Amino acid sequence: MLDDLSMAISKPREDGPTIGTGPFIPVSSSSEQIVMSRFADYYQGAPEIEQIVWKPYPALRTAWAAMMRGEIDFLYEVGQESVEFVEGESSVSTYAFLRPYVFGVAFNSRRPSLEDRRVRQALNFAVNRQQVLDQALKGRGVMADGPVWPAHWAYDSFVGGYGYDPTRASAILDAADRRLERDSSTLARPARLRFSCLLIENLELWERMALLVQRQLFDIGVDMKLEPVSASIFSQRISKGDFDAAFLEIIGGYSMVRPYVFWYSRSPQNSFGYHNEDSDRAFEDIRQAFDDDAYRAAVGRLQQSMVADPPGIFLAWGQTARAVSRKFVVPNDPDRDVLLRVSEWQLAGTQTKATN
């Protein structure tokens, strides 16, 4: 899609090094570090920084210690549990931004138990997103109303999502003939609906959020059984459609191509069986939009169609932060990733370049 061109693009080629459009070029790569040098002919001007060396650390604590010793200048990501601690260090600046990944439960709409849009609507009304945001993400993020990133320039903030209304959820399930019934093959409590939810094992944050959703759905008589599996099995089963639902983190920005890839009915990567004609038309209108107004209107229609026929329970967009040594002057757009403007970073006291 057209707005993909606002992002750096790289492409491997058989007869030589990778070609791309970014401000830095990979020079070498090993398990210890990745070295990148500035691209002198970058279209926005040659970066002030000559070289970037990326190094892995086993834990934030060891990376932070290295930063305090002056061995590194930049922490790629500061965990939510550590932001307040890092913010208290005078030699470091932190830059928070909304990650372009949405946490949620994606449904396999091919499954008979979840193919009825009324059932999926009811499950959305049953979830208290504010509670998930407060308890799991410690308030660092925003509630989600769909797969379109709220920081995308065409996002329509006037399109409403689902409020927490368990009474309405129960009424919708009653209308869809989903009443409390006992599973005669087990001793499980009566439920309106039973389905399993895949979950990658040993991811504490994901598990905490999934347990909150499970508890909230249980309050309206829905039994969502969590099924932890390894990451490799998780991917295999998603690609094969061998699941009822899956708890995951889906990329939604910076371009509309991300929602398109996952939710357009004829996309090869739509593993969720989601098919909605209104959403498909909106995706096509986004692809064919001839100006900003047409593009923005199509995104709004997409948001509306995916609220009316939800492919999952979109919970929250989490916030994260970068940490940069004050040796650098960093352009900072509110709630945007400072790494996207790394070509404009400068050493303090050497700000001579005109800003773009």
Structure description:
The longest helix is centred in the last third of the chain and has 17 residues. The model has no long low-confidence stretch (mean pLDDT 90). The chain is built from ten helices and 14 strands. The strands form four sheets. Strands 6, 7, 8, 9, 10, 11 and 12 form a seven-stranded mixed beta sheet that branches. A three-stranded antiparallel beta sheet has the order 3-4-5, with no helix packed on it. Strands 1-2 form a two-stranded antiparallel sheet. Helix 4 runs antiparallel to helix 6. Strand 3 and strand 4 form a beta hairpin. The protein has two domains: 125 residues, Periplasmic binding protein-like II (D-Maltodextrin-Binding Protein, domain 2); 218 residues, Dipeptide-binding Protein, Domain 3 (Dipeptide-binding Protein, domain 3), CATH 3.10.105.10. With 356 residues, the chain is of the alpha+beta class.
